[in-house]
Amino acid sequence: YSSSMGRCVQCHFSTHCKRHRSFRLQHRNSLSRSLWLNEHVLHHYRPPKMPASLCIQSIFHWTNETINIWSHLLGFIYFTYCQFERQFISLPLIGASSTEHIVVSLSLFGSQMCMFLSATFHIFGCQSARSRQQYLQMDLFGISAGILSMYITGIYTSFFCFETHLRSYLAVLLCLFLITGIVPFRKDSLDAKVIGSRIGWVHIIYSLVILFGLCPSIHWIFLHGGFEHPHVVEWFPSVLIVYSLTGAAFFFYVSMFPERIRPGKFDLVGCSHQWWHLLILAAMVSWQSSSIQLLTYYHSNDQICQSFAPTPPFHSNHSNHSYHT
């Protein structure tokens, strides 16, 4: 600190000052390429080598990561609230079984992990290329948890009345968890790209896992007698909404629209990664809401499974439960 100049030398000459908890935003060209959001986001980057405390403080500053951070930080808070609300209010109200408490809790925990690890990556990923790679691996693991969190409630509620099919799909889900849990930590999973694109093999694997969801969806429609069945008519729009939101999210992620059209104009608001975050959050919120509504529907109609299958899965005490209003 220079008293004669009346100002901090480090604040003046360095990109950040730990003492005064300040930093200067950087242009893309002053950073390693591995620290870019993408080549079309030009300004408002946080400087590298910031201490963790300053990274945390930076979430309250307007940077090109602010929306990425807060969209999933708020998502984490929301799913944490849902965790308590479901376990202590919604599920006890409908007389849910212990299995259903576990299924819903695991599903919400996966959503929490997805949001938390994503926010962590965007908060601390500016420190260095090496740390960014490590946080990115955890972020991808969170995506795995998020995808499977949607599957576990989707499969459970879809095949609520079909025990044999439910057990089979849960076994497949376990295999998918092992695959998607390992992929982010393979050394070549982040670097291997399809020629001429930003799509890596890890993205292809995740896309295939998401597309796998079409199999149980089609099977569910078939078991209920086709699109004309009232049950399908009522609940199939929820599936369409989730696939529309995730499809739109993937479009923005892959296309890098709109910043590809006007580089530097959407650095703070409106870039593709922000749309990716918001649409994925919307898909998860929509799916969690639909799942608890469908589970409530089953418990409010004690005889519903008799028209589909003779034996409901894992919850033989369901018929003894009454729906309380």
From TrEMBL:
Residues annotated as transmembrane = 102-126, 138-160, 166-183, 204-223, 235-254
What the entry lists under InterPro entries is as follows: AdipoR/HlyIII-related
Q: What is its main location?
A: membrane
**Keywords, sorted A to Z:** Membrane, Metal-binding, Transmembrane, Transmembrane helix, Zinc
User: What does the entry list as the binding residues for Zn(2+)?
Assistant: H122, H273, H277
Q: Name one GO molecular function term.
A: metal ion binding
Q: How does it sit in the membrane?
A: Multi-pass membrane protein
One Pfam family linked to the record: HlyIII
Family in the record: Belongs to the ADIPOR family.
Q: What is this protein called?
A: Paqr-3
Q: What is the lineage of its organism?
A: Eukaryota, Metazoa, Ecdysozoa, Nematoda, Chromadorea
